[in-house]
Design brief:
This protein is an alpha+beta fold and 337 residues long. The chain has one domain: Sandwich (Jelly Rolls). It contains ten helices and 16 strands. The strands form five sheets. Strands 4, 6, 9, 13, 15 and 16 form a six-stranded antiparallel sheet that branches. It has a three-stranded mixed sheet with strand order 1-5-7, with helices on one face. A hairpin with a 4-residue loop joins β2 and β3. The protein starts with a strand and ends with a helix. 46% of the residues are buried. Bound molecules: 2-oxoglutaric acid (AKG). 2-oxoglutaric acid binds next to β2.
């Protein structure tokens, strides 16, 4: 089995009673969108239940006391018009120096400890991927809340329309290793549980309003070159995924249904990769198709891929037309403008 997991153990999570208990308290559970368990797609997936998991409502109360929403002129713009256009058409924009290198190094020291591997002894790197559970220690919170990122969230999602992150979710750490990691299938991260039964994250859903998710984010905690297992991205796939979801209504499609449809709908699109120096963040449209790949270099790749949560649902028919860029991208997919 090539993938190694740190807490919590998969066996515990797979029991039916856990799933039932989980479905009653879904708001207290964060799925690790990167951990999919399915041989058919080559995905591994599990729910991440941690001591630090908080119901969203508590997060809201704690981090965002009710305040009036800033208007557009109150936030600074970090992306140029060309970058905005890139986000709309390609589905992602790259932000270098989004968080400090020092913070990344502090975070990686924690991640190495959690992995149980020795950074100085490649012989201890016995699996191609090690998945660490939700990380909420200070360096992770700091990385998620820099002024640059807050400005980016404002510009892409809209001031007052997103919820600050208290953690960075899980880390799939990828190591140079001869084995295939077994989790490199193309997919779109699902964002909300099904109404009646959540057997696993494969049943989680994605709908045209991207219920529950404002962005997919890729945080690079190590320098990532083409050799270091950068995440693959299908450029512009978010537009086609929007069209795929359009006729499915509020219920949307499951993770598996979307993954099944991706080859036919987006397989011909050009690929890009999420490379860059430590501290880079890729801000991605929530419908962007992406996939892991094998590590071909020498230095382990540390990356987090948390969602940014919405404060309110997206609105694709605003009477004042005050659409965020994420909403505009969905409309671009649906209506071509
Ligand atoms: O590790 C990666 O490059 C991406 C992994 C991923 O997208 C996922 O597990 O959802």
């Amino acid at each position: 089995m090539p993938t190694r997991y740190t807490r919590p153990s998969l066996d515990f999570l797979k029991t039916e009673s856990t799933v039932l208990a989980a479905s009653k308290h879904l708001h207290a559970i964060r799925p690790i969108a990167s951990g999919y368990l399915q041989s058919h797609f080559g995905f591994f997936l599990f729910f991440d239940v941690t001591e630090t998991s908080q119901p969203l409502s508590i997060l809201q109360l704690r981090s965002e006391p009710r305040m009036s929403r800033p208007n557009k002129s109150q936030f600074s713009r970090i992306f140029t018009e060309a970058q905005e256009e890139q986000f709309l058409r390609n589905g992602f924009v790259k932000l270098e120096r989004a968080f400090p290198k020092k913070v990344a190094e502090e975070a990686c020291a924690i991640l190495w400890r959690e992995s149980g591997y020795d950074p100085g002894k490649p012989v201890t790197w016995t699996h191609p991927v090690v998945r660490i559970g939700d990380c909420a220690q200070p360096p992770f919170r700091e990385a998620a809340n820099t002024p640059a990122l807050r400005a980016a969230f404002d510009q892409l999602v809209g001031a007052g329309r997103w919820i600050p992150r208290e953690s960075l979710g899980g880390f799939p750490i990828r190591f140079p290793h001869p084995d295939d990691p077994g989790d490199t299938g193309w997919h779109v991260d699902a964002s909300f549980p099904p109404e009646h039964q959540a057997g696993s994250y494969f049943d989680w859903r994605i709908n045209i309003e991207s219920k529950g998710r404002a962005l997919l984010m890729l945080f690079l905690f190590s320098d990532v070159t083409e050799l270091d297992a950068p995440t693959r991205i299908r450029v512009g796939s978010h537009l086609r995924v929007a069209r795929l979801l359009a006729s499915k209504g509020p219920e949307g499609m499951s993770f598996v249904q979307v993954a099944d449809a991706l080859e036919g709908t987006t397989g011909d699109l050009p690929e890009s990769t999420a490379t860059g120096p430590i501290g880079t963040v890729y801000l991605c449209h929530p419908f962007l198709a992406h996939a892991a790949q094998r590590h071909r270099g020498n230095t382990p790749r540390f990356m987090a891929q948390p969602p940014l949560y919405q404060r309110d649902r997206f609105n694709l028919a605003r009477s004042d037309e005050d659409y965020s860029l994420v909403e505009r991208a969905i409309r671009l997919g649906l209506y071509g403008h």
